[in-house]
């Protein structure tokens, strides 16, 4: 049993009673959900349901009005963004933010954890351990043949994979992805599903997505949000058959 399970019931992430108000509007309203270690959870719902705000709250970009976010037994709502990263939470935004002037290898290398502090950056050198880790991650993200390629020359899908690799090399326990397959080809979407299922051997993954085919390919469980609350939760088959979900989301 992992340390996360021992400290916090059976859950790596426990979100309870989470609320955030902007000028009286509750973007997230008394939300609770729980993630197991090595789970792929997908949050779906109509635009404006509060999905991205949930990721903003977990990573500390937005501060909760009330409620609790416990990660591996640690309360995140009191921490700053960089402290949440160091606790083991990684976040990828909708638009890929890779360093286009650097090669694939260099993008992965600059994300290597040793270079993150001032002292670490001063002492950082490209030793065998760094090279081996970069090459291992590049293989996972299907870019091992493109290590010397400038990131600017990658396709949109390859840039998304590179950014996932930049998270993987930091070894977060929880990886959060906002619409990772938006703009991808069918083949790239299939490879991304393969990638996410493979990385759950070592990571827990929380995804926001609209592509229901992709959701069905990857999700262990699905949480459907509507107006800042949980509308339905369960397997993809369960939520697709839920009359409330059909009415507010799938029917459109």
TrEMBL record:
Gene3D superfamilies: P-loop containing nucleotide triphosphate hydrolases (3.40.50.300). SUPFAM superfamilies: P-loop containing nucleoside triphosphate hydrolases. The keyword Secreted does not apply. It comes from Marinobacter excellens HL-55. NCBIfam families: urea_trans_UrtD. Residues 13-252 form the ABC transporter domain. GO terms for cellular component: plasma membrane. InterPro entries: AAA+_ATPase, ABC_AA/LPS_Transport, ABC_transporter-like_ATP-bd, ABC_transptr_urea_ATP-bd_UrtD, BCA_ABC_TP_C, P-loop_NTPase. SMART domains: AAA. It holds the Pfam family ABC_tran. This is Urea ABC transporter, ATP-binding protein UrtD. GO terms for molecular function: ATP binding; ATP hydrolysis activity. The keyword Nucleotide-binding applies. Keywords: ATP-binding, Nucleotide-binding, Transport.
